[in-house]
Design brief:
Pathway: Amine and polyamine biosynthesis; ectoine biosynthesis; L-ectoine from L-aspartate 4-semialdehyde: step 1/3. This protein is of the alpha/beta class. Helix content is 35%, strand content 15%.
């Protein structure tokens, strides 16, 4: 059943004119607008309609913000209720019934060990503000300044968060990286140790422990370890459960607070309400944003009460009392929990992973398919180049960009990520239907075939098999496991 889009409240200028004015007026730092020249005017669920009248399936979902898709009825009703009540919309950090309800809803989903003795700090409106708060909290509580972070990490674009980011280009404009030790994240497909699998993850853990314990290793005893249970911008790389447990063991034994950045992986996206649940670990601090605001700006950290040693005003922000976001967030959190959407994400995501892995049997440019739940990545490789000593081909960023554009032509909005922007990322809403999932798979398969066709402008076509083949049907043979 097609999603019904709300009629517009006004007539819009043509999309081309709006895009032209955007290019004239907005900064050179704009990103999504460059690769996705769409002017959304209406949206409902997973469907977005542009000013040109075209409809798209949105697999970007506000970079994972829209757990329930666009304009979900429970979100709209929660916002209307606050607006109609006459409640204040801007309250700084004052207590309100809306805020109390949000906090209650959130704490009901947290690991019990954290919820029972946890504290919450409302931060600025973005996830990067919450990362800043988490780092500051740990430094104040421990009296130390060092930070352990990981290759491929993305934690935001503000100073301390940027220092922890693994992207050297993004860090080039800041000098705040001092005191941050970057460790190898267990990236199975491109393992830095050349082994992959559990052995690569174990080597990463051993190196971490050795560096922290070595008095002449050049590593400050850190204030915290900051990690993503599933790296998002780094290319959708799930950390092995055994590795996460080792990181928890290493940090706990050495009195190092463990910060889990669940900005993108939280609220059911990876098949459990929080990604850390799969491994059974309980971090000392959880960084939460994106979906917790129900599509509106909201960011918090939740942490063990022992760390609550900072003084009033140690971390503040004018817009940390967003009542509409808290109402929308509470409604979203409860809807996800009551309707078992994490399990739904696991079911649909596993099915999509199986089908996408079969794509490698038809398109050699598909090097790897990975993910958790509805956080999925397809890494594209250059089949015209020589493989490394593990037989892995280099990344194909131009091909990935071509796939993104071909997908857009077919009515599918995708995001790119990974070390060289060669990973096609799928972040559909948790409310995606089976029919929509099928449409996403077919459109993506067609886009890959078109992008790697001779003369298409991308790289990766030389070793192609079965050009033009779609994703095999569920009853067709496939490679890989879910």
């Amino acid at each position: 059943m097609p999603e019904q889009l709300t009629a517009p409240a006004e007539d819009f200028d043509s999309g081309e004119a709006i895009l032209r004015r955007q290019a004239q007026r907005e900064s050179a730092a704009r990103t999504y607008a460059r690769s996705l020249p769409v002017v959304p005017v209406r949206a409902r669920g997973m469907t977005v309609e542009g000013a040109d009248g075209r409809r798209y399936l949105d697999c970007l979902s506000g970079a994972g913000t829209l757990a329930l898709g666009h304009n979900h009825p429970v979100v709209l009703e929660a916002v209307r209720r606050v607006l109609d009540s006459g409640a204040p919309l801007h309250v700084l950090d004052l207590a309100t019934p809306v805020k109390d309800d949000f906090t209650t809803a959130l704490f009901e989903t947290l690991p019990p060990e954290l919820a029972d003795r946890g504290r919450i700090q409302f931060c600025g409106p973005a996830g990067t503000d919450a990362v800043e708060a988490a780092i500051k909290l740990s430094r104040i509580a421990t009296g130390r300044s060092g930070l352990l972070a990981f290759s491929g990490a993305y934690h935001g674009m503000t100073a301390a968060a940027l220092a922890a980011t693994g992207d050297t280009a993004a860090r080039a404009t800041t000098e705040t990286a001092a005191g941050v030790t970057r460790l190898p994240y267990p990236y199975d497909y491109r393992c830095p140790f050349g082994t992959g699998g559990e052995q690569g993850a174990e080597l990463s853990a051993r190196l971490t422990a050795a560096l922290v314990d070595d008095p002449k290793g050049g590593v400050q005893h850190p204030a915290a370890m900051l990690l993503e249970p599933v790296q998002g911008e780094g290319g959708v790389i799930p950390a092995p459960d055994s590795w996460l447990r080792r990181m928890r063991e290493i940090t706990a034994d050495r009195g190092i607070p463990l910060i889990a950045d669940e900005v993108q992986s939280g609220v059911g996206r990876t098949g459990t309400f929080w990604a850390v649940e799969r491994s059974g670990i309980v971090p000392d601090v959880m960084v939460l944003s994106k979906a917790i605001g129900g599509s509106l700006p909201l960011a918090v950290i939740v942490y063990r009460e022992e760390l609550d040693t900072w003084h009033p005003g140690a971390h503040a922000g004018t817009f940390r009392g967003n009542q509409l976001a808290m109402a929308a967030g509470a409604a979203t959190i409860r809807y996800v929990a009551r309707n078992a959407l994490p399990a739904r994400a696991e079911e649909v995501g596993s099915r999509m992973l199986r089908r996408l892995r079969a794509l490698a049997g038809h398109h050699a440019c598909v090097g790897d398919v990975r993910g958790r739940g509805l956080m999925i990545g397809v890494e594209l490789v250059d089949t015209t180049a020589d493989p490394d000593d593990r037989g892995t081909l280099p990344a194909a960023p131009r091909l990935a960009a071509r796939v993104q554009q071909e997908a857009l032509r077919r009515g599918l909005i995708l995001e790119l990520g990974g070390r060289h922007s060669s990973v096609v990322r799928l972040l559909p809403p948790l409310t995606i239907t089976d029919e929509q999932a099928e449409a996403v798979l077919e459109r993506l398969a067609d886009a890959v075939a078109a992008a790697e066709a001779p003369g298409a402008g991308g790289t990766g076509g030389a070793g192609r098999r079965g050009a033009g083949a779609g994703v095999p049907r569920p009853n067709a043979p496939h490679t890989g496991t879910s």
